[in-house]
Structure formats: C-alpha cells, structure tokens
Amino acid sequence: MRVSVIGCGHLGIPHAAAMAEIGHEVIGVDLDQAKIDRLNAGECPIYEDGLPELLTTHTATGRLRFTTSLEEAAEFADVHFLAVGTPIDADGRSYDTGQVFGAARALAPHLTRPAVVIGKSTVTVGTSRDLGALLARLSPAGEDVEVVWNPEFLREGHAIDDTLRPDRIVVGVPSARAEDAVRQVYAPLLANGIPLFVTDPVTAELIKGAANAYLGMKISFINGVADMCNAAGADVQQLTEAIGLDPRIGRGGLNAGPGYGGGCLPKDVRAFTASARTLGATEAATLLRAAEEVNESRPTAALRLIEQTLGHPVDGVRITVWGASFKAGTDDVRESPALAIAALMHQRGATVTVHDPHAVPTALRRHPELDYAEALDDSVQGAQLIVLATGWPHFREADPKALAPLVADQVLVDLRNLIDADAWRMAGWTVRQLGRPAQE
C-alpha cells in the first residue's frame, strides 16, 4: 500500500520506517525542511535503537521518502497516519490538539478521493469525532474521508520493536470500509499473530489514556512503598520481587526509581485525570491525582536520600549525575527525573556535572545552567558524590576500582538500583540504593 505519515518526531519517524519495513511505500511529511533533508539523506535526527538502520535501508531503495508537501502526500497515498505532537495545553491538564486539527485542515483541501485518516497521537476523548466532521466538511471527497483512531503504545527506546512486534493493535473505526483499510495496512503484522482489537473510536481514545494512567499509578505506588522502605530499613527490591509473583500484580513496570518522565506518560496521566473529572468520575480523578503527587515529589525524595547519604546539605558539594534522558534507550529529556534532580541540587547550591551516553546535547538545550561531560571518566573528576539517575547499561558496567582515583570521595547514590552494590562496596565505595537498607 501507499501510506503517508504526517509529523516526523519521536512517533512519526519510527512509524514511517516500520511501515516501510513491512512492505509499504511510505511518504513522511513535516514542516521542517532541514529535518526533511536529513531524513531523505538517511540521517536520523533522534536516538532510537534500530531506527538509523531502517532509515538508511529504505530511503536508499526509495520505499521511504520525506517531504514538506501535504499536496504531494495526498496525491501519493489513500491512507494517512496523523503522528503530530499533542503537548499538554496551557491549563496543564489537557491536550493541545492544535497540531492535529492544523494538520487535518492543511491536508483536507487535497483529499479529492476516498481516504482514511488514521490518528496515532494521544488525544482528548471526542477528538476523532470532531476531526471526522472537520475533514468531511473541508475535503472535496466529503464523507468519503473517514477517521480511525489507532493509539500507539510505544516505549521510547523500543519504538521500532514495539511497532513491528506490538503486543496488540487497537483501532477505533467508524465503518467496515475503514476497518478493512486498517486490516490491509497491518496485514503483515496480523499474519504474525498480533491481536487486533476493533472498537468504536471513543473507546480507542480511552484505552490509550487508561493504559498510561495505570502505568503511572503502578510506578507511583512502588515509589511510595520505596519511601516506606527507606523509613523502615526494609528492602524494596525484595519486596517488589515477592509481590510481583502474584499474577494479579505482575512484575513488569514495578520498579522503584526517581519517577516517570518523558513526552507521554506525565501528560497522559494529567489529561486522563482531567477527563475523569470532566466526566464526573471524581473518585477516579482523586486516585489518579494522588499518583501524580507521588511522582511530583520524587526529586525532593531523591534529594532527601542524597543528603542523608552525605550527612549534610548539598550546598557547596561537587556532584556528578549519571543520566539525562528520562529513561535508557532514548535521547528524550522531556520531564526527565534525572534532570529534575540535577536542577534541584543546582538550585540548592551544589556544583552539578551531568553525563549521559546520548542525551547531553538535548539536555544542554533544556538546562544550560548545568555542567556536562561527554565521557564517563571526565564526568567524575573531583566529584564528592555520584548520583545514578538513568538506567543505561553504560553505568552498570562502570568499573568502581578504575573510577576511584578520579573522585574526591567514593560515594554513590543509585536511584535505579542498577549496580551490584556489593562489588562497589568491596572496592571501597559508600553506596546507597533507593528503598534499600543503608547497610546490607
């Protein structure tokens, strides 16, 4: 099939590359000419495992190309994926769908024959209905342009794998014709046994919000329990392993840490909370808001643990933060817990140096007040404390003996429970891990 993907960001680029990988002819659309030029040259403007190889392969064959022209996309394809951004609105609680409706308005005049527009962005309930009405009104093809909602469930750092081998595909369809178009697009995946859930559009919109809100609550729950473990001298890791064996709870996503971040989970929990309140589900809104409050408290909780380890405030202390991206596997620093903790310590008077294997350039744009080091060894020179805040394997593999001569004090606070603490202690380090006893 010929498909277009409108919006070339963290969602659109991996989706376009994956659609080419499963055999479609794909045209990606974005307003940024410099980005389009890089993509057409096979260059990847974001860090995502496996994406550079797909871009190089499919731009070279011509199966995947990019343009700034929606007219060209409309002429080329009959199925159009909307993958533009939906940042949090000015109210801080709902989605700004301006890019979604802006892209639809710009595309509409060029839709002169029947087409299916497939929304991928996360949106407020009712968006697909309003978008369908807009396209029917503005498109020359009128009601022959239909809107399907097909929410993404991608984990940043795993976007290619999650697109090519998802655990499910959810589509909210208005008609049998629209469903047939979706089945044709995803036929190679369905042939591999990937389950397809066909719903009405409003249910599809709610499924995405509910999924991310639950993940946020699960993370906040275990972080709240980690606070209890810190206070009681218990071990959150052992606790997590034990309760995770209960199939009603499950181990996945049940990891104590500095909180959730990124471009999706924080805004999705906020927006789903707002939707619950708008729909009159006040008890659900209260529950969701409590999960948000736990997550918002994580930088302060981390600072408390850091100062307990030091035995005094961070003012005047030289501190290295390992990690800038909100999670391993991506260079995305939006709402990064690691950077929030680094910025808080900087505000409290610490001298903070940040190191990340991929996210230093993006972090520098967001927090120019911090110092940065490209190399791990350089990052710890003269440090009195290291804070491990993002779970890159790069940090797990660090050699405590080799690093010891570089630091002023051999002290490490592991907010991800990533390292082998015993091995570091045997090398002479003082180690404190989140939700685990100070002495083991």
TrEMBL record:
This is UDP-glucose 6-dehydrogenase. It comes from the Bacteria. Pathway: Nucleotide-sugar biosynthesis; UDP-alpha-D-glucuronate biosynthesis; UDP-alpha-D-glucuronate from UDP-alpha-D-glucose: step 1/1. The lineage of its organism: Bacteria, Bacillati, Actinomycetota, Actinomycetes, Kitasatosporales. Keywords: NAD, Oxidoreductase. Its EC number is 1.1.1.22. The keyword Oxidoreductase applies. GO terms for molecular function: oxidoreductase activity. It comes from Streptomyces mutomycini. NCBIfam families: NDP-sugDHase. Residues 320-421 form the UDP-glucose/GDP-mannose dehydrogenase C-terminal domain. It holds the Pfam family UDPG_MGDP_dh. InterPro entries: 6-PGluconate_DH-like_C_sf, NAD(P)-bd_dom_sf, UDP-Glc/GDP-Man, UDP-Glc/GDP-Man_DH_C, UDP-Glc/GDP-Man_DH_C_sf, UDP-Glc/GDP-Man_DH_dimer, UDP-Glc/GDP-Man_DH_N, UDPglc_DH_bac. The keyword NAD applies. It catalyses: UDP-alpha-D-glucose + 2 NAD(+) + H2O = UDP-alpha-D-glucuronate + 2 NADH + 3 H(+). Belongs to the UDP-glucose/GDP-mannose dehydrogenase family.
